Give the backbone structure.
Amino acid sequence: MTRPDSLQQEIETLRERLNRLSEASLRINESLDLDTVVQDALDSARSLTDARYGVITLLDDSGEVQDLLASGLTPEQARGCWDMPDGTRFFQYLNTIPGPLRLRDFYSHAGSLGLPELRPPVPVSSPFAFLAAPIRHRGQRVGGIYVAEKEDGGEFSLEDEETLVTFASQAALVIANARRYREEHRARKHLEAVIDTSPVGVAVFDARTGQPRSVNREARRIVGELHGPDDSAEDLLEVLTFRRTDGHEVSLAEFPLAQALSTGEAIRAEEIVIQVPDGRCITTLVNATPIHSEEGCVESVVVTVQDMTPLEELERLRAEFLGVVSHELRTPLTSIRGSADTLMEAWADLDPAEMHQFFKIIREQADHMRDLIGNLLDVARIEMGTLSMNPESIELGRVIDDARSRFLLGGGGDRLRIDVAPDLPPVMADPRRIVQVLVNLLFNAAKNSEERSAIRVTAVLEELYVCVSVSDEGKGISAERLPHLFRKFSRSETEEQESPTGLGLAICKGIVEAHGGRIWAESEGPGLGARFTFTLPLAVYAAMPEGGDEGSAEPEVSAGTRERILAVDDDAQTLRYVRDSLARAGYTPVITSNPEEVYQLVKTTRPDLVLLDLVLPGTDGIGLMKGIFEIADVPVVFLSAYGQDQIIAKAFDMGASDYVVKPFSPTELVARIKAALRKPQGRDQSEPLEPYVVGDLAVDYAERLVTVGGGPVRLTATEYQVLFELSVNGGRVLAHHQLLQRVWGLGNSGDGRLLRTVVKRLRRKLGDDAANPSYVFTEPRVGYRMPKPEPPKAAAR
């Protein structure tokens, strides 16, 4: 071949290569779907380098491998790349390379670095040609792209390396764009979901046409309440009347929404009654806010409409409650007045037995009035946080016996079956108040079950609490009614109440929560009985037999020791309330409304506990908690108005000691603080544990440092806690319920999926093979265990 022909062939080869690069670049820019973009980039890189296999990894914000995609591999082989032995160390090494890496034989290179032998899930030749390039965006590593095994069995060339680097740079840009699009799309979906599930009606109207652009579920429900089955929206607007709170009717043109659309003025808290001719009406609270364009014109109007019917229903229930209370007070007064009149007018004609009977009626009815008024006062005190409490270390068995005696004296009958676990440790509680709770629950069970059916009372130890249950075989409770049982004014038209006023269970809830406990009800359904359970904190923490030293006991917090509590909340009123509550309880409060001051305050004041609001300006409580844990080993208790299960679970998963839903009473807050301070934070600080070493795994408890083969392993708070519990109990099986309770706390002893998910993540980060484990072993249908640690001398060697 002549030189001109050779040059022409090189030019054609370069032109073809550039065309393929251009086509690949266009293809990977056609989509904003992250998985599609990444897969296209990987397929193109593998094709242009004539590689047999390709893998691309994406990193999360902490630098850990978040996702892995493959090219030239089956789905099973791709999963094998993720799960292959020592795969974690392999990818950790590749994540540290500063630039492109082109190797004739990866096995020789890995051996020279002391890396373990790689066992890929696909057959490869020797030497094993390998080419890698980091993916960086604005100086930050976001992943890596790797190809292996040339189709012709040769080595990768410099041109292949340049091609892979080009794709890595292009992939970085499109990955960043796709991630930004995904985050914006996800944020939009989250916002739409929040708005659609909001209990307030939300609608966005076009300012020019007046037509709705979007309407959420609650707004559609409100309109549906007034909308007839055959009425159109236009027909409905023609017949609607709008009435202000002063009784003045306004036309559609005078309606606040019409004013907002025409004038661009905001409407604030306008109470409007919307009515249709057949008499149906809804009282609403209307707010409207115009959205302006850059030129200052009104583009749209956001309207919120709150249905006031629930508030009106609450007022109706309160009025009904006052009527019930009035009736309940009049009944004993009538008996007292009648008996007194008889004694005054006919005392000379009455024999002593009759007079004694009338005096007995007066005393019994006076006692009834005293109990009724006492319940009313208890509810008021619980609401104001002034319920009197005198907690002390008590034996629960004696309290249950006292409640049993009062139940028998009150005519409950000999139907109690009491089962108290032996050797129950003392609890910290006010005995008078706990007897009140038990008596309420016992009479509630008696009223809702047959006269001869058994009522069972049990008490068992559950970690740092004692669980007390009262169960019956009576009417049961429907699933719809269960969430409302402990509310004030909650009454049922078809079922008897635990007290004439419906306050008994509400009082029980207030008393139990003031002790730092929880109360809940369970029932399989109507006719299948019910079980009420509440918890009380132990007076002194004692280690469970399965873990720790038996002698490691932490005494109850005494208010006189002046523990320092840091409270963080952006609401000044809440801060004052918390400060005063802490000061009255004998603590030293340190308060701030500025999240930026928190880390400095933790360093300088060294608090014994931190109270955090979940939502703070410029940050969130969970992120703030992570930073606190990096500075100090201190319990964190959240104070939040958000009571959703998933939010509470996330807080506990990230390491919170407790979660208190606003509003709360001072007694409940102080009880929760005492319980959190009693709970040990990880280990007994007076006797640090020796490091745990098995094979390449080492856990340094003093530094909270986990390493595999000398390299650090980043774990979340929950992953570390699971590893901690398993390693300190090395050689011993921990059951699922034990791990759930120790890591996630009381009440998390039933859902094993949560534990399995964390163990799976933990194994992956440790490079442990579930099929052939070295560190975390599964005991089928029982739990998990880790091997006994190596002796100190062996570990030192």
In short: The CA atoms of residues 557 and 674 lie 6 Å apart.
